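Quick question, first post here. What does this chain look like in 3D?
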Amino acid sequence: MDADAVVVTLPLGVLKAGMVRFDPPLPPRKQSAIDRLGFGALNKVLLLFPHAFWEDLEGRRDFWGVCAPTSKRRGEGFQFWNLQRCTGQPMLLVLHAGRAACRDGAPTRDEDAVEATLEYLRGIFGADAVPAPTQQVVTRWDEDPYARGVYSHVALGATSRDYDLMAEPLWDDTLLWAGEAACRAHPATVAGAFISGLREAARFACRMHQEGRWRPPAPSAPLPPALHPHPKPATSAPLPPAFHSCRTPDQSELLAALQKAQNDASEARAEAQQAEARVAELLREARQAESDARRQAEMERAQQRSG
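> Answer (accepted):
Ran it through. Tokens below.
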């Protein structure tokens, strides 16, 4: 299959595992960013109960957390989210992070993960107050070969600059990168992944326009059905400004947005090149200083022997 460009949206965990081979290989700066950034495990236990006992005992609250009894169990059930308000159902979403969510530390059976969660709830509210859940769902993203984890994070030795390197296009903007790990402003979020996709779409559209292979639609073009003004809801509550209507931007607005995306990409590439040049210069200076020190030491030893 031939294409003008490819947008890589693979999870960082898949890239770190080397499950995909690039030919030619990725440049060192890109591969180093992949290696430096962390990709953690965070699994969720969703429990549906006969009633919201936590609200009956403690009142309405959005979330709470607990501390594990031992360092070995750190990360187990560290945060509980009350989904009663947003779903209308007596549901709790419980997060298990770190080793408690990894292959070598997580419970091997869903029942064990649920029981560990219930143990914390009984410790908070009392054993008699916590009924058995009627339904349960347990995620295991670390074991998914097409994900190998959940979110990126700045690991030891990494910096936020690595997110910019992850987003940097390669080979004359033919290999583009999107996903939560390619969005410095909003990493580890669905919003960040979505924004990065818009960014790369704008980058590609700008390139096609500059090459004369694509033109924005004329302002008079009819709106597609998905962009027609939103119907007002049955309630009398006013719509937020963002939902009043959708419109097609005129050509000048679209070109300006595309040009800005292209300029931002060029500036990011220039900054990366300057940083690489500076690192190379510092390495040369360090090697020269080491060589000078070695020569000086040899001269001093020679003088001592001759003296």
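Confidence is low (pLDDT under 50) at residues 226-249.
The first strand starts at residue 6 and ends at 8.
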